[in-house]
Amino acid sequence: MEITNPHKVEHRKLGKERAWGIAWMEENKISIDPSLKGYRYLLYLLHEHFHLKHPDWSETKVRKESSLTARFLWKMGFRWVELK
Fold first, then answer.
1. What is the predicted pLDDT for the residue at 80?
2. Which residue has the higher pLDDT, 6 or 70?
3. Which of 23, 29, 59, 66 could form a disulfide with 47 if both were Cys (CB 3.0 to 4.6 A apart)?
4. How far is C-alpha 42 from the geometric centre of its chain's CA atoms?
């Protein structure tokens, strides 16, 4: 079974936007700062994913759910591994 990514994810510096991640609703796209590593990368990626998946959620709800999910995945041993 092929797994497809529900959103396009681009990695680019977001210093000008003063953000670690941005969810682009119209384009179904996430921009995430490539300087994020480890747990913080997972947290912000989930945060922006929840903005796209649940546009009706408040910022507080998005923060809570992304934090709970990131902590759960991290404790279960989830890690990003670059395959070269």
1. 83
2. 70
3. 66
4. 6
| 12: containing domain | 8-75
- Whether residue 25 lies inside any domain: the answer is yes
**39 and 69 Cβ atoms separated by less than 8 Å:** no
- Give the pLDDT confidence of 16-62 residue by residue, as tens digits: 999 999 999 999 999 999 999 999 999 999 999 999 999 999 999 99
Closest to 46 in 3D by CA, of 35, 56, 26, 32:
32
44 located within any domain: yes
Q: Per-residue pLDDT averaged across 73-78, rounded? A: 96
Helix (H) or strand (E) holding 32: strand 29-32
Query: Which alpha helices (DSSP H) does 1-84 contain, by range?
Result: 38-53, 59-75
Pull the structure tokens for residue 77.
């041993």
Question: Does residue 36 form part of some domain?
Answer: yes
**How many domains does the chain contain in total?**
1
CATH of the domain at 65: 3.30.2010.10
